[in-house]
């Protein structure tokens, strides 16, 4: 176990190193309070949900691979897992819930029938923990989504069914926000798309617009509900067209004052997601992030502290926009200890924000304005070798959570004592 004295000493050295650049490490740690990460419930059970005891992800252009033992099979198990994850993370998190994770008590409740009563036990649980809850309609793993279309379906019966589902998720999210005293972000992502070259993109996009107009007819107070729209470039089985493209939702969100959700796994691999932040923030009030890691055709690998995530955090901090950003995660990996995956991914995201908060941005801007480009590049490079790990360790220490590799043993023990005993 890490010796707290050593952690403090390392922090003092780091504090001095950053002070040489005019950066106050205490202030950076304080600012981390504004980085309130929404933990996606679906990493704990491979996006199965609780509609039936054996619910599994199907379709939707997304896929979970791996069969590592210990996935959560009940609400109680999922809550225990999330609480375990939270006990290993500094700062305060939120929970991001999908509509298929209701407390249905063995009753068959179709998606167009869900109500707040199915989520009340989640709200009560969140109240106890003092956390907020975000929400999502689930427009996949359902027979009415099997043909690849939901809100943009040409089948009127199916389209109406999904419109009703999404309307209900907005009502539920608004009630969650009201009861918890923190707005709930209801993020709409639909899988609609086409494997091969479609000829009627226009009709599907017109239908999606019509469906959204109908869904958003009802207004809810902003302090209870935020509406967000998530685009995607392609999915598995929707390689040739996704109806809800980036252009579609950017246009819709700007015109209708909605949040845009940027999922970092949903763009072309050479696109820099961080580059989008300063543009979008000029035209929408707030953004939702789904921090993920795309690897080849998969958009949902466990987040690591890579250049992609670093740039996203840097651009948000440089734009002084932490208060306008909701940070969520979106990855699902069934090939490793799922609790470990959460902690690695969330800590990596926190590390990216802390790294950004430790940047001497004013100095870098000064170099840039003077045309001192070598100096700008040199400083950016030097920052990569500064002791930000010691600052993160100290952040963990003062939050009373395991420092550094200490969390690995805790998770191994949880696996031995809890996860391995699940059937
Ligand atoms: C389960 C989520 O809704 C889903 O991952 C969505 O956010 C997405 O990113 C689909 O690729
Ligand atoms: Mn996503």
TrEMBL record:
Pathway as given in its UniProt record: Carbohydrate degradation; L-rhamnose degradation; glycerone phosphate from L-rhamnose: step 1/3
UniProt KW Mitochondrion keyword: no
Keyword Cytoplasm appears in the UniProt entry: yes
GO molecular function: L-rhamnose isomerase activity; manganese ion binding
Pfam families (UniProt xref): RhaA (PF06134)
Cellular compartments annotated: Cytoplasm
Tree of life domain: Bacteria
Transmembrane segments: none
Annotated binding of Mn(2+), by residue: 266, 298, 300
SUPFAM superfamilies referenced in this protein's UniProt entry, alphabetically: Xylose isomerase-like
Keywords: Cytoplasm, Isomerase, Manganese, Metal-binding, Rhamnose metabolism
Protein name: L-rhamnose isomerase
Gene name in the database record: rhaA
